[in-house]
Design a protein that fits this description.
The protein is α+β, with helices and mostly antiparallel strands. The protein is 51% helix and 18% strand. The protein folds into two domains: 77 residues, YacF-like domains (YacF-like, Sandwich); 162 residues, YacF-like, CATH 1.10.3900. Belongs to the ZapD family.
């Protein structure tokens, strides 16, 4: 496969925990990218914040993170006695993981401060109503949006700081999960590939951008199937039968 080609990475979860973590990671990145908003596009930020808090409220994120951190610590500790390993890097990772354990135990209810914040709660109650955040519905929100941007950004930073442990822990856990497997070059015919492997939670699939194909995945943490579908309608059967080259990492 030509490594110079532009590749698109698709990630697919194979269990419910990974599905939730990918959604959290997506929302966190969107929040951080859109935190410096103006009055005319402020609702996008609060929609993202509402979705993030909704996921936290409905799932035991903290327990799953603590369990994964302990598993990662055990895996990393095994490498400490391996000759030639980057011991300072491992020590640094173990220190970070222990810090996250301490912070998660110290903060048993993630996002609780934001759930109880009257300003945020009032917006969340109306944000799912079409047009429900007009100035006559939420006059206090309209007034807040007229404040200098520096004041608003200071308030937003305080809100996000209360979620910093969640943000950092999710980021490091996902980094370690992704780094647990390397990409392997593969190919398939008829746009279909299937395989089995024990105890995997995430598929990472690289597809050349110029092929205009995207993967549709089904399966679980022991067996999976990938069907490559065209972005545009197939005009002849030869395209359907062509050899599809891709890269796959099972994490």
């Amino acid at each position: 496969m030509d490594n110079a080609k532009t590749m698109v990475i698709f990630e697919h979860p194979l269990n419910e925990k990974m599905r939730i973590w990918l959604r959290l990671e997506f929302l966190i990145k969107q929040l951080l990218h859109n935190k410096n908003f103006e009055a005319n596009n402020a609702l996008f930020f609060f929609h993202l914040l509402d979705e993030l808090l909704e996921i936290i409220e409905r799932n035991d994120i903290r327990s799953d993170l603590l369990k994964n951190i302990e598993e990662q610590k055990q895996k990393l500790s095994i490498w400490l006695d391996v000759p030639g390993v980057d011991k300072p890097l491992l020590d640094d990772l173990l220190i970070k993981l222990n810090t996250f354990i301490h912070e998660l135990n110290f903060n048993p209810k993630l996002g609780q401060d934001l759930k109880e914040d009257r300003f945020i709660s009032s917006i969340r109650k109306r944000i799912t109503i079409p047009g429900g955040c007009c100035s006559f519905d939420l006059p206090f929100f309209h007034l807040w949006l007229q404040q200098p941007q520096t004041i608003r950004e200071e308030q937003i930073d305080q809100w996000l700081q209360s979620l910093s442990t969640l943000f950092q822990t999710i980021s490091l856990c996902m980094q370690l999960i992704r780094q647990s497997s390397h990409f392997e070059q593969l190919s398939c015919t008829n746009h279909f590939y299937q395989n089995s492997q024990d105890d995997i939670s995430l598929l990472r699939i690289k597809v050349p951008l110029d092929k205009k194909l995207y993967p549709q995945v089904s399966g679980n943490n022991n067996r999976y199937a990938i069907r490559f579908l065209p972005l545009e309608p197939i005009m002849n059967n030869n395209d359907q039968e062509m050899l599809v080259e891709f890269e796959l990492a099972c994490c």
